[in-house]
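User: Please look over both lines:
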Amino acid sequence: MLIEKYDKKPKFDKGFTPFYFISYPLYNIQCRSILQKYLNSYDEGVHFNYLMNANNLNIKTYAIYIFNSLHQIYSVEGIKGLYNGLIPMIAYILSKKTIYYFLEKIHFSIQKKKKNKKRKDTYNHKSSVLKYENKFIDEKENTNNFIGDNLNYKVVKYMNFVKEENILVKKKKKKKFFYLSFYHSLYEYISSIVAYPLLNISTKLIIFQDNTKSLFYNLKNITQLTYKIDGVSGFFKGLNNYLIIQSLDKVLNCFLYKLFSSNYSYNKVITIKVVLTTCLNTIIAPYIQYSMLNRSQSQVLGLCKDTSFNEFFSNYPWKSHVSNVTFCLAVTAVQLMIFALIPKDTTKNDDVINEERDE
């Protein structure tokens, strides 16, 4: 969410669309291809299907890889194999959005009460000042100081008032959005931390080797095993890396607001954000994958073994990653050049100022 939308009345967003159920098998394949080589020892009676190696894939073979992987999982595990971990993932998204909405609702209610009280105090103050001026003003002196009659005096006075108010509103706008950005980033961190165990369980279910049972049985089993063997801390494994990735999104929001929010509409800024977010995720893909590995590490048989940060990055296919980043940067540069040719929204600042003044 961009900063300028923080001050709007909160609306609940479930966080996903029906298209998510179509794209989830692709996320399933991604997790398996990244984590399968880090699986710890397991019982020989447990069958786990190894997918083809996803490293060094190019654009031509990627579609074939996706199709083969989907067919391979479906033929061995059935349709449920494509949706392992979906239940806790949906629960994670909904709980995170619900907690965030609840905190945002409280914040909005408090701010609304403060604004109403401030508006009432301002109105009372202006009324008292107006009565005082009408009682003691010397109309003859005012008409001598301004060219024309009393009407000209009122026009000049109003123009000066509007000019000073616009300057004040711009200063208040920057200060207000700074605090709003801080508070709502805090709310997102809180909701992410509280709901994180569900994301943790979801990732573990995707790669859990015992796929002979039902989805609900595996969900119950992996939850009990994690608590029994790893303790409560096992549900928060990898939280620090996940929050760092979340922080990068917040930095990107501030960057977009600083550079683009004054000249482009909200929808255009969102489009630019999608482009830059895709590029950013491509650049930090190794760290995202390590975060995924970190939260799936456990002493439970059938999950991932402990792998250090240095060990993971020393074995990472950097040649393929550099190639992907180069291609992504080229595409992003072309898209941003197209956006640079789009005319700026010159009326946006005036609309924001008028909206601030009405409040």
